[in-house]
Amino acid sequence: MQKIVKKFFSAPSIKLNTLVVIEVVMLLLVSLGGLFYFTRKTLVEEAKKDAEQRLEGTVQHVDNILLSIEQMAGNFYYELLEHLDQPERMATYARRLVECNPNITGCAIAFEPNYFPGREQFITYVHRKKYNSPELIAADKSVNRPYTKQNWYVETMRTGRPAWLNPEHNRDYTVEPVISFCLPIRDSHGEHVGVLAVGLSVTLLSQIVLDVAPTPHSYSVLLAADRSYIVHPVREKLRGEKSKVEIGRGSGEVSFEQDGETWYAFYKPFVRNNVPGRSMEALNWTIATVYPKSDIFGEYNHLVFHVLGFTFVGLFIFYVLCRMVIRRQVKPLAYLTVSAERIAEGHYEEPIPDTNRNDEVGIFQRHFQQMQRALAADVSKKQQLQDALNERREQLQKTHQQIQEDDQVKAIFLHNVTNRMIAPSESILGSVTKLCDNYQTITLQEADQEIGNIKQQGEVVLALLSHKFEAGKEASHE
Questions:
Q1: pTM of the model
Q2: Does an H or E element contain 262, and which?
Q3: What is the tens place of the pLDDT at every residue in 410-424?
Q4: What end-to-end distance do the CA atoms of the chain give, in Å?
Q5: Which sign, positive or negative, has the C-alpha torsion 153, 158, 161, 165?
Q6: What does 128-173 look like in DSSP terms, one character per residue?
Q7: Backbone angles phi, psi at 198, to 5 degrees
Q8: Is residue 280 helix, strand or coil?
Q9: Contact 251/229 with Cβ under 8 angstroms?
Q10: How many degrees, rounded to 5, is the angle at CA 123 between CA 120 and CA 129?
Q11: Each residue of 83-108: pLDDT tens digit?
Q12: Strand 219-223 to strand 229-231: parallel, antiparallel, or no bridges (unpaired)?
């Protein structure tokens, strides 16, 4: 009995509980899936907005430095034009330019060959010992190669326009690499006779750009027009190496694989502010912030882990609570199931307990109780009828058996009577035959003897028939 109760008590509740939990899990999966999807999308958007804001701030910071250098160089440029015939003053201008602006790393003033009589080449160069050092070093010649073969001089003399030039690669630096703002020097006839170049330290520029990195593993880069690196945290990449990531000219984002991990690059063009009198040649620089996927989604992944953990714990608690509630709700059904099985086995009189519940289970239990009582009463009546029929059948069987026994006795009796009547009947038949065959010759004495024999044997037969008749009457009375 206990095993049956346990079977019917646990199986339906477990099944119902499992179905409820599965439905809740499906609902949670849909809800959490949507939540995680939009959260992930929002994180990317937030990272993009944060990168754009930081990049915009960095562009403004760098552009302010560039503008200050341009204005400072412009101020000295016009004063320098008034003293082109005084080469000894060029070194003073170069030194004062470097001293007046801490962002300026060095200044070079170079003239075309033989511009000054007796001097085949003329250059004065003043630079800081280190990009942030107040100590200045002056030189009047190029150390590695003639300035007439260096890009800042050649390109400026060729175009005749003020411009920012990228660092020269593929050469050994005697000082720190710089980006140069170059102004062509024109004489009174408008001829290009030299170049004023002011340098901005790539180290200083890198410090400004790399400080944009908002997360521990992110970094920022500044790309030249040919996609070579102007600023990169790995100095080896500053020797003319070009970016392998497909970064466009406008603003946008791109993902790529690096060191077995996914990275996101958010980029925008380096656009300078349009200031009156400023030379607005296109730099075609691009500034970008690069994030590893783990930096963007690190907190998200922790959140997912914690949410899933809490979800599993919550589902377990929900399962236990549902189990308790469902067991309580289906407990009457378990008893009713056992009762139904007992009734099916023939235990119609086993009572169904009363209930005070007014829900569907309570209504079902009361109706089942009424059905059981009606079934028990009906079965009881049928049992009484069956008992009466059985008793009548037994009586009929006994009567039938008695009749069969009487018939057997009668048959034996008739058989005995018949056997006993054979001899008298044969004697009577013999006497009658003798009388009929010899009535002319038979004597009176012999006739009397045969008639007496007939009378005697007739009385015997009559006695046997009388006995049978009396026996039949007694049997009928019984």
A1: 0.58
A2: strand 261-269
A3: 777 777 777 777 777
A4: 56
A5: negative
A6: ESSTT-S-EEEESS-SSS-GGGSHHHHHHHHH-S-EEEPPP-SS--
A7: -120, 130
A8: coil
A9: no
A10: 150
A11: 888 888 999 999 999 998 888 888 99
A12: antiparallel
